[in-house]
Amino acid sequence: MDIKQLRSFVHIAELGSLSRAAERLNLSQPALSRQLNLLEETLDTKLLERTGRGVKLTEAGQMLAERARVILSDLARLEADLTARSNKVTGHVHVGVPPSAGIVITGALIERLRDHYPDLNISVAEDLTGDVQEGLLSGRLDIGILHDGMISRSLHAEPLWREDLFLISHPSQVGEQETEIAYEDVLSLPLIMPTNKHGLRAKMQEAAFRAGRPLTPVVEADALRVLVDLVHRNVGHTVLPRSSLVMELSTGRLKARRIINPELSRKVMLSWLHDRPLSTGAKAVVDTLRDLAGTMPMAER
To answer: Is-same-fold flag (87-161+267-295; 165-265)?
Structure first.
């Protein structure tokens, strides 16, 4: 039994599918199956049972998955502690951010890192939260910013700040004194929303389900600039945090109304793989993000 087999098994256990785990790990399915077979032979016990929808853990498999997560987490902490003995902050760190958070924090993050760690190279990828999460799980990204919700158990996740969600509209659609709107009324409007892979859509779907109402956008778009442009063109309304539209709102080009009954908000989370130790450079990025979190405009801790 080796660490690679344990890591692979944890991903299979989480996803309940050999094919999806192989895709995440950038392995062929036969190669992943061989790892699983070797692990079962070493332990002399069956760990998985195949079902019509994938695989499920046996009792021994459940025990191994739980223990393996602890082992991998301990190993990651040990490697990180040993890495931290090097004082110079160098290397290359890959960071993934969703568009709304990227507008708020990316510039300040890069500026602070260049001032404090000039020998550290940073790559920032702006992508949807689902794609950022997959980037972390596949090892393509070292650090990611996610929104709370369906975050993988393989990831460490800690809150950075909370952002309230607002209905964003063309000024012609908002009365002079209107500052709030009930969620049921939001659902009756022509909405421009991201697709189902986006965390914001999941948040809206959940609230709509609780209200006993369908969420039926008139347009779906996964690019922030497209959402905003369509609202500018008075095609419909969208839902976003105010912090991602500071310029448009301050100049009156768009209007924001707080959503109530219920109020909608989400947490912005700092995340990385449990079983992948943070390099000295990645730790510097994490510490900088934590420091910057308290300075975010229109965000609450």
So the answer is: yes
